[in-house]
Amino acid sequence: MAIICRQLSQGIFILLTLFSLGICVSELSEETCETLPSEVHLVKEEYDELGRLQRTCNGEIAVNKCEGSCKSQVQPSVITPTGFLKECYCCRESFLRERIITLNHCYDPDGLRLTNEGTNAMDIKLKEPAECKCYKCGDFSR
């Protein structure tokens, strides 16, 4: 049985028996939010002004991703309406970098490989994480 004693205000303490509330208490883990390299298979289709497929280009692209864990906690609270104070943090990008990627495997609508200059490759813009950090969940004001 875990017991927590919190000071609410000067001289007033609250004693909670966490076992009886069914709450599991554990030490906060280390933050491991990192910017990691990964590879994705990218497919881009190009259509004419009438909506007909002109070509499909694809390729394996090396991009960064955010991955890891951040310190989050839930603790009992007599101040919040739910009775718990939740502090949730998520691993997200802190800065996005724009890159131009070239897809070199292009095919016509019949699946034939395109070899003509100008149609055998396609450049696309891609935004990827340059840095990742822990942010308060739901906070999109970066």
TrEMBL record:
Domain of life: Eukaryota
Signal peptide location: 1-26
InterPro entries linked to this entry: Bursicon_suB, Cystine-knot_cytokine
UniProt keyword Signal present: yes
Gene3D superfamilies: Cystine-knot cytokines
Record bears the keyword Disulfide bond: no
Entry keyword set: Signal
Identification of the protein by name: Partner of bursicon
Organism ancestry: Eukaryota, Metazoa, Ecdysozoa, Arthropoda, Hexapoda
